[in-house]
Hints:
This is Protocatechuate 3,4-dioxygenase beta subunit. The chain is mostly beta strands. The chain is built from 2 helices and 11 strands, in the order βββββαββββαββ. The chain has helices spanning about 140-145, 200-205, and strands spanning about 5, 10-15, 20, 95-105, 115-120, 150-155, 160-165, 175-185, 185-195, 240, 245-255. The chain has a 4-stranded mixed sheet with strand order 7-4-11-10, with no helix packed on it.
Amino acid sequence: MKRRTIILGGGALLAGAGNAFIAFGRSGEPISRRSFDWSASDFRSGGTAAVPSDLPEPIFRAEPQCIVTSAQTLGPCHTSGVPLRGDVTEGVVGLPTRISLRVVESESCAPVEGADVEIWHTDARGVYSGEAAAMCNRDDAGSRSVSFLRGRQISDDKGVVNFLTVYPGWYPGRAVHVHLRILVDSRELLVSQLLFDDALSDLVYGGHPDYAGRPTRETMNGGDSVFAASEAARFIFDFEKLDAGVLQASYTVGVARG
């Protein structure tokens, strides 16, 4: 098995033939600058249409932080009637990204099977789809009439769901983020948001063709309007570049079922 390197909030998780170890854990402060051995041109462009179906299984930390993931605001851009699907793109362009979430009980670290996990985020332009608040897609009737980059999955016996999407764009006042909502037995257990490493966003926005032409983003993780600077680092995805030119973003989500 080929060795894989997962970038964490403060180091790397190296996975080889049947073993994995953590070199460093998440840091206490948001990561704002980092260098990589790859560039934006190493990733696919144009969306998910040509992404192979046999992507490798996502890798999660061997010892996840099994604490309750902090709740955050639902936000004005949530919509109802979100479809159950794995590929949420509806053909929109962008750097293909697989978001893998593992849902566990915060007290026991046991996987939560059957959780209804929903995600939503913006396209490469920083625009949301759907009939949401005006600020989500102002003066964009086309985006209001569709439901791109929104979807739900049901967690498997390992507590895992996988969404095929594209790297989110940015909009003023917010760091790059994905919203999530988790229900179990029709009861809402968590509404939260997850962030991307600032240096990864710099790489994507600075060199990937699907994100060209936009102004330089103004908000980093430490200056986000929703997350306090002291807590943002705990919400950053672990990530890796898959050989297929797809970005893999992974996170373990702890929920309290009591």
